[in-house]
């Protein structure tokens, strides 16, 4: 083959390479254009309402009060106060999504148990947008934990329900009650022991423990324990982590806990039933990362106290608006067999319970 032929072949190959490069570059450009255009068309189709999500929220807040309770689980006044507080904690408007809209989406997910997709359809946003704002609001709400959930101050006077002369005076040294519940849970895919989440009734749950005072406020919340964990272990770890019971005082607990001087059984609390009736996510938890599931429960307890405190200041009550839900969807912690924590401690608890029983008997009215 002559050198002219070789040169000609080389030129042809170079020309073909350039054509392939040009074709490939054109395909990339058209693919990018098609992707962007499809996204634009999707948004145009999705955002096809005659009114904006901002108008939708204003319509609810300016409408009948029951609409705000139904959608956001609180009064319009409390909703606006919550938005102001979260703004102080760093919640900001992002793009065209105002603070009120972010909070509204968050409360729809917690209160009505809606999925991100359902909320996205209602507010005309993508799932990614709803998820991003949900996490931002959740982070700000969790900053309120120490403000709204605190252990009772033992130096303060006894609760009025335990005052001398009342039928409950025998429990004058009680600080409140401890309750537990199983909430549907989804362990992470990389969890080394997902089987630990399966409780005695056969479904995956997290075993949540909370202490409440005699007004129904949460004073401590412990989340994240697998459904198979015994309540006494959860309580023991909570004490080790700072859940302090002052000398001479105690909490009332249900029959699943061992009877001791600091934790007197059996007594069943009902606060989780109220929480689940207001925040349906506590009944129908969605498949988030497990850390998010734990944080959601804490956020619900924070908002419970927030609403209850404001309602008290406004002299209103709304707990009957949401119906009632069984306080334990699934097994009750009261059904668990109490573990022996030591004969001495248990006997002290039994002696205390016996003395209270005698006081109640002596003060009986026929």
UniProtKB/TrEMBL annotation:
<feature type="compositionally biased region" description="Acidic residues">
    <location>
        <begin position="333"/>
        <end position="342"/>
    </location>
</feature>
<dbReference type="Pfam" id="PF13359">
    <property type="entry name" value="DDE_Tnp_4"/>
</dbReference>
<keyword id="KW-0378">Hydrolase</keyword>
<feature type="domain" description="DDE Tnp4">
    <location>
        <begin position="194"/>
        <end position="268"/>
    </location>
</feature>
<protein>
    <recommendedName>
        <fullName>DDE Tnp4 domain-containing protein</fullName>
    </recommendedName>
</protein>
<dbReference type="GO" id="GO:0004518">
    <property type="term" value="F:nuclease activity"/>
</dbReference>
<dbReference type="GO" id="GO:0046872">
    <property type="term" value="F:metal ion binding"/>
</dbReference>
<dbReference type="GO" id="GO:0005634">
    <property type="term" value="C:nucleus"/>
</dbReference>
<dbReference type="InterPro" id="IPR045249">
    <property type="entry name" value="HARBI1-like"/>
</dbReference>
<comment type="similarity">
    <text>Belongs to the HARBI1 family.</text>
</comment>
<feature type="domain" description="DUF8040">
    <location>
        <begin position="50"/>
        <end position="142"/>
    </location>
</feature>
<keyword id="KW-0539">Nucleus</keyword>
<dbReference type="GO" id="GO:0016787">
    <property type="term" value="F:hydrolase activity"/>
</dbReference>
<dbReference type="InterPro" id="IPR027806">
    <property type="entry name" value="HARBI1_dom"/>
</dbReference>
<dbReference type="InterPro" id="IPR058353">
    <property type="entry name" value="DUF8040"/>
</dbReference>
<dbReference type="Pfam" id="PF26138">
    <property type="entry name" value="DUF8040"/>
</dbReference>
<keyword id="KW-0540">Nuclease</keyword>
<keyword id="KW-0479">Metal-binding</keyword>
<feature type="region of interest" description="Disordered">
    <location>
        <begin position="324"/>
        <end position="350"/>
    </location>
</feature>
């Amino acid at each position: 083959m002559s050198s002219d032929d070789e040169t000609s072949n080389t030129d042809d190959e170079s020309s073909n390479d350039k054509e392939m490069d040009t074709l490939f570059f054109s395909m990339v450009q058209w693919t990018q254009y098609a992707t962007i255009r499809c996204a634009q068309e999707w948004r145009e189709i999705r955002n096809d309402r005659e009114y904006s999500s901002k108008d939708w929220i204003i319509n609810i807040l300016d409408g009948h009060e029951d609409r705000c309770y139904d959608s956001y689980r609180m009064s319009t006044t409390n909703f606006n106060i919550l938005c102001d507080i979260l703004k102080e904690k760093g919640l900001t408007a992002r793009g065209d999504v105002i603070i009120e809209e972010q909070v509204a989406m968050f409360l729809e997910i917690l209160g009505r148990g809606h999925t991100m997709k359902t909320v996205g359809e209602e507010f005309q946003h993508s799932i990614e947008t709803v998820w991003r704002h949900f996490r931002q609001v959740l982070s700000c709400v969790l900053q309120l934990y120490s403000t709204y959930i605190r252990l009772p101050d033992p130096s303060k006077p006894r609760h009025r329900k335990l005052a001398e002369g009342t039928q409950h005076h025998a429990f004058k040294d009680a600080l409140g009650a401890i309750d537990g519940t199983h909430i549907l849970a989804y362990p992470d895919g990389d969890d080394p022991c997902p089987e630990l989440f399966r409780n005695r009734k056969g479904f995956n749950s997290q075993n949540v423990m909370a202490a409440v005072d005699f007004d129904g406020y949460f004073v401590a919340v412990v989340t994240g324990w697998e459904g198979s964990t015994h309540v006494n272990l959860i309580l023991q770890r909570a004490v080790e982590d700072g859940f302090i019971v002052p000398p001479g005082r105690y909490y009332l607990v249900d029959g699943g806990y061992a009877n001791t001087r600091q934790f007197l059984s059996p007594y069943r609390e009902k606060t989780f039933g109220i929480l689940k009736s207001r925040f349906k996510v506590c009944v129908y938890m969605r498949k988030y990362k497990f850390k998010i599931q734990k944080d959601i429960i804490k956020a619900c307890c924070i908002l419970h106290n927030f609403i209850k405190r404001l309602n008290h200041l406004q002299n209103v009550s709304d707990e009957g608006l949401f119906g009632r839900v069984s306080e334990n969807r699934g097994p009750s912690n009261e059904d668990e067999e109490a573990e022996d924590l030591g004969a001495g401690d248990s006997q002290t608890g039994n002696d205390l319970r016996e003395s209270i029983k005698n006081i109640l008997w002596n003060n009986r009215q026929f």
